[in-house]
Specification:
Elements (H helix, E strand, L loop, with lengths): L3 E5 L3 H13 L3 E5 L2 H11 L3 E5 L7 H10 L8 E5 L4 H7 L2 E2 L2 E5 L4 H12 L1
Parallel strand pairs: 1-2, 1-3, 3-4, 4-6
Antiparallel strand pairs: 5-6
Helix pairs in contact: 2-3
């Protein structure tokens, strides 16, 4: 069975692009346009991984991630932040894991995204 990935980003073109790429790679993709929707989709879809923008309306990505960590049934879901708040150089210098979370700097290449997803899913 295909792994389910939630893509939460307030930029529709990012969501469409990531959805298209991951669907072609064999993943099932669920999307959300803001933090509140992301929490709703997690409850509905029980994703295996979450790709989460940090700066989003209603509830930002850091609050979404913290909320998920505090709930027993969602605490083990890997979260990868897709963000322009860190750049590729910072991720390379600090490593892909910063503060206990995986980061992928925007813009990113599809190969980088797949690599981070495979790493996060173990």
């Amino acid at each position: 069975m295909a792994k389910t990935i939630l893509v939460a980003d307030d930029e529709p073109r990012i969501v469409q692009l990531v959805d298209s790429m991951l669907s072609r790679a064999g993943y099932r993709v669920v999307s959300a346009a803001n933090g509140r929707e992301a929490l709703e989709r997690v409850a509905e879809a029980k994703p295996d991984l979450i790709l989460l923008d940090i700066l989003m309306p209603e509830i930002d990505g850091t609050v979404v991630a913290q909320t998920l960590r505090e709930q027993e049934d969602t605490s083990a879901i890997p979260v990868v932040f897709l963000t322009s708040l860190v750049d590729g150089t910072e991720v390379e210098r600090e490593g892909p894991e910063i503060g206990g979370h995986l980061f992928l700097a925007k813009p990113f290449k599809f190969e980088e995204l797949l690599s981070v997803i495979k790493h996060a899913l173990g």
